[in-house]
Amino acid sequence: MDDLKAKYLGQIADAGDEDALEAIRLAAVGKKGEVALKMRELGKMTPEERQVAGPALNALKDEINSALTAKKTALGDAALDERLRSEWLDVTLPARDRRQGSIHPVSQASEELTAIFAELGFSVAEGPRIETDWHNFDALNIPSHHPARAEMDTFYLHRVAGDNRPPNVLRTHTSPVQIRSMELQGAPIRIICPGGVYRADYDQTHTPMFHQVEGLAIDKDISMANLKWVLEEFVKAYFEVDGVELRFRASHFPFTEPSAEVDIRCSWEGGQLKIGEGDDWMEILGSGMVHPKVIAAGGIDPEVYQGFAFGIGIDRLAMLKYGIPDLRAFFDSDLRWLRHYGFAALDMPNLHGGLSR
Ligand code: PHE
Description:
Layout: H1 2-14, H2 18-29, H3 34-41, H4 47-86, E1 102-103, H5 105-119, E2 123-124, E3 130-131, H6 133-136, H7 147-151, E4 169-170, H8 176-185, E5 189-198, E6 209-219, H9 224-239, E7 246-253, E8 256-267, E9 274-275, E10 280-290, H10 292-297, E11 306-313, H11 314-322, H12 335-341, E12 343-344
Cofactor: Mg(2+)
Subcellular location: Cytoplasm
InterPro entries: aa-tRNA-synth_II, aa-tRNA-synth_II/BPL/LPL, Phe-tRNA-synth_IIc_asu, Phe-tRNA_ligase_II_N, Phe_tRNA_ligase_alpha1_bac, Phenylalanyl-tRNA_Synthase, tRNA-bd_arm
């Protein structure tokens, strides 16, 4: 046993990376490792021998395991140190050759879509990113225990001590601004609200913070046909190209009835994201006729007024228009990326001058 111990502790100390460490782990304490084989021999021993050898083998196994863990941590620390040594930017360097910052693609897309909706008669409304449970859910016809709450991967804030109300949330969508705007302005109303929203989700097309633009139009004679026309006009103007193909899909949201989701035809071929070709569809928005309960929650009479609402993913619009395949890059704050995809600060998008030229 002393030989085994010396052998494996020596190997662990010499291991150069995690792969080597894993190989040692398997050979030593893996299911078919040397320690396991020794344990199997316990069966052939006398009870007296076993009483000594059993605990000793277990102790050996523990010792090897803790040496493995310690070494793994040390290797991880060393790798991090090496990264910190080799990857760095001197943030104190004067910006000699370029004195001007650039506009982030998400900001650019927000400016562009605001210009388009302004032309269509929508004004810009705002709401807080820390939202009450009522505005984010109940008022939108999502009572507690509704499955839609679980699907949203909500970030909850700490409750203030002694306060019995449900905790505030980071808004999971811009839809609470529908309620706030109705409360504030009454009907008729035509607003959009671009802004940040939060959900605990992270992959190529999802980040924990992302952006939506909410739209709300309430009046006495608004129909689904108006919704479809507005969305189509918007998409045509935004993408500045012919041949953008849309797909309206019947869907469900607690706050609209009927509801539709809209996808855009795209292709991911060769790691490139392209719009208007290919066999893939990217979902960019949810929409529908505002549920009477939601209109009532906003303080407006649903017997008199009706309307439509939509929520568009701004980051995805930017990905599609500028061919950016991975959403996570938007939030890396990599200066080289920002310079490549960024827009000139003084180039304000408007429909007459051209949105993105
Ligand atoms: N709030 C919905 C979402 O985040 C989108 C939506 C907005 C759907 C307005 C319908 C009407 O998924």
